[in-house]
Amino acid sequence: MQYAIVTGESRGLGEAIAKDFIEYGVDVIGISRSGSKELTEFSEQEKADYHHMACDLSDSAKTEQCFEKIADELFNEETYHIYLINNAGMIEPIETVGNLDAKQVTKHVQVNLLAPIVLTNSLLSYADNHEVELTIVNITSGAAEKSTPGWSTYNSTKAAMNRFTATVAAELENQEKDHRILAYSPGVMDTDMQDVIRSASKEAFQDVKKFRKLKEEGQLRGPDTVSAVLMDLLNKPNEIENGKVYKLYDLIKE
């Protein structure tokens, strides 16, 4: 059996990725506050199942407890491969430093950085005691390589996620383990996150007009297209470079 654990699968890119896994015959475990009715209905027509695990990823303790429940089901003699897609994320707070809301910053760091670290740590810990191959994908952003006024928190957590990915890859190499971990930068998509970005004030986010223009000119890719590119990459496991940040634009050029 193969399983895919997908965080933030209730909408956007997470939902598209989960749907693609189901089409490939991989059972999906979704982790989010609310599940996806569309995925439930879709899985009923396919050969793979979809199960939703309600969890608040802004709480590290609850995230770890949630994974322990999942692990009890997944780690058995029939399971040989598990994917972990750390997709859940938030863009807020969009604000300049000095005007940030401390509670929102804390929640952001918990969801965008700490939850993926906790889930990756738990998965690798369980895998050490079972003969299960792992593929871990951390959804990142081009924002990791920029200093965008108004996005200090988002820039920082995505940059940290890229470094975490590379560090885990180096540790796996040192331990001579065959698991794979990579980061995937999907570019600018037409999702709810973009709605939040476009609703920001000019004072909080100087580039807001640029993102509004992308929507007006139809330059935003749909989640289905972005997910398909990721699936093409995952279907060539021997070509995956551990710890690498794969960018949608580069993969499309190839």
UniProtKB/TrEMBL annotation:
Pfam families: adh_short
The keyword Oxidoreductase appears for this protein: yes
Biological process annotations from GO: tetrahydrobiopterin biosynthetic process
UniProt record similarity statement: Belongs to the short-chain dehydrogenases/reductases (SDR) family.
Annotated compartments: Cytoplasm
UniProt-listed InterPro entries: Biopterin_syn/organic_redct, NAD(P)-bd_dom_sf, Sc_DH/Rdtase_CS, SDR_fam
Gene Ontology cellular component terms for the protein in this record: cytoplasm
GO molecular function: sepiapterin reductase (NADP+) activity
Domain of life, per lineage: Bacteria
Keywords (A to Z) from UniProt: Cytoplasm, NADP, Oxidoreductase
Protein name per Swiss-Prot or TrEMBL: Benzil reductase ((S)-benzoin forming)
